[in-house]
Amino acid sequence: xxxxxxxxxxxxxxxxxxxxxxxxxxxxxxxxxxxxxxxxxxxxxxxxxxxxxxxxxxxxxxxxxxxxxxxxxxxxxxxxxxxxxxxxxxxxxxxxxxxxxxxxxxxxxxxxxxxxxxxxxxxxxxxxxxxxxxxxxxxxxxxxxxxxxxxxxxxxxxxxxxxxxxxxxxxxxxxxxxxxxxxxxxxxxxxxxxxxxxxxxxxxxxxxxxxxxxxxxxxxxxxxxxxxxxxxxxxxxxxxxxxxxxxxxxxxxxxxxxxxxxxxxxxxxxxxxxxxxxxxxxxxxxxxxxxxxxxxxxxxxxxxxxxxxxxxxxxxxxxxxxxxxxxxxxxxxxxxxxxxxxxxxxxxxxxxxxxxxxxxxxxxxxxxxxxxxxx
Length: 375
Ligand SMILES: *Cc1c(COP(=O)(O)O)cnc(C)c1O
Fold this sequence. Notes:
It is a single chain. This protein is α/β, with parallel strands linked by helices. Helix content is 40%, strand content 16%. It folds into two domains: 111 residues, Aspartate Aminotransferase, domain 1; 243 residues, Aspartate Aminotransferase, domain 2. Helix 2 packs across helix 9, helix 5 runs parallel beside helix 6 and helix 9 crosses helix 10.
């Protein structure tokens, strides 16, 4: 990490994107860069190949496309570009991000079925198998890896087994897991993986990326339902013009992302980062349980990325009051995003270490104002 303290962050973000970035990443944005110059395009090309290498041990089979916008824009560019006009999508949904994929498909008039297991359950794999068996019209299956709304890690190895047994195209929203959890998308049979700059790679927001199975993607030339989100055209432009983007690219954000990738390498790669996140999460949950908090999910389903905690069972507790007290002490946490259960969330990703989590736990202990009311 850079020793130059260029900007003093007002607080530590424990939110899963935008998240706390390193000084080095923020410093990379302090210059103005040309978009079409070779210097810049070479950086883009370096990012594209670096991402493929992080995703798989079989990099020749895959390519990366970068796409402007937040992560949802990248998801929409995939759904709108890779499914042919007569295709049909099965979405496995167990949280707001899964349901959003279904909503995108509806906007785009794509024939879609939703396998909804509810927000606090694992996907039903038996049902998945029956649906695919009964409906050969389904061409694509999409699922979220880490459902960031609850913190659940979906069993993508088992899902992939079923999807591939039935020979369907597999789309993975690995937005909040890629770079923070080890995976090989070739082994997993993933054809399209979507993620974004401001999650586990620890860059700043502004673009997303899609790692595509080249052989499959070559078939998608005339599918796009949107001009600016035409992922195929974006890919061809990048491939044929040494990393050029079709429209104005987020140059500062791209520079920051290149720096973030460099720092990921310096940390020891995805395995080392995953170990840090796991330790953050373990430290957090152990400390929170000591303070009397309970988690929404059981430990076996819990991701190392973000944890949902149930509201304390006390009438004096309000999230706003708790949030404001923590913010005053320099920590920002996240509201919950589960429909029927009152929860708040604490993320472990970003430039956050177990030592910072311990500081957070002290701040939380001091912010349990409703406990004083009991005494
Ligand atoms: C962050 C995230 C997204 C994208 O959200 P944006 O707000 O559009 O960046 C999509 N899926 C998952 C699982 C996410 O965590």
